[in-house]
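Consider a typical record:
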Amino acid sequence: RMEGHGSYALPTGTEYRGALRDGTFDGEGELLFPGGGRYRAVWHRGVPAQGEYTFADGLKYKDKKWHYCDGYDRRFYTEICSGLKPAGISQLTNLDPPRKIPDGCYDCGDGFYNPETRVIVDYKFRFLRNADDDEHEWIIQTCRKAWDETIEHKPKP
C-alpha cells in the first residue's frame, strides 16, 4: 500500500500530492485538477477533514458569505480584480480576451463541444465525455458558439 509522501494520478487526469497512509490520503495534501483548480486539505483516512478549493484563476471558494456570481453581482472574477470595462465594451467570459472556439463548436465551460459528434474535449483538446441529450440541449441553448458575432470595441479614427 502507498505510504509516506508522494503523488497519485487518477484516471480522470486529477493528481493527488501529499501524505499517504495505508493506501489512502492521510495528512496534508492537495488534489490538482486538469483545468487548473486545486483543493488543499487535511485528510483523514481518505476523507478531507478541512480544506480550501482555489479555481484556476486564483479565486478561492468560500462556502459562507460567497459574493462571486450571486444574484446581486454578476461580474466575472477578473472584472472584480481589474474593474469593469467602459460602456459598450463587453467582457464575455472570465478570460479576456475569451478563448477562440473551434469552428462549429460551443464553449461549455470546461471545454469545447462539437454538436455533430456530441463529444466534449477539454481546452487542450483531450477527450472529457460524450454529452447526453440533456447536456446537449443545455449547451445548444446556453453556451457561446464559434459563429456568434463578437462586437469588439474599435476606437474612432
User: Anything to note?
Assistant: The chain has two helices and ten strands. Residues 4-54 form one domain. The beta strands are 4-9, 15-21, 24-32, 38-44, 47-54, 106-107, 112-114, 119-121, 127-130, 144-145.
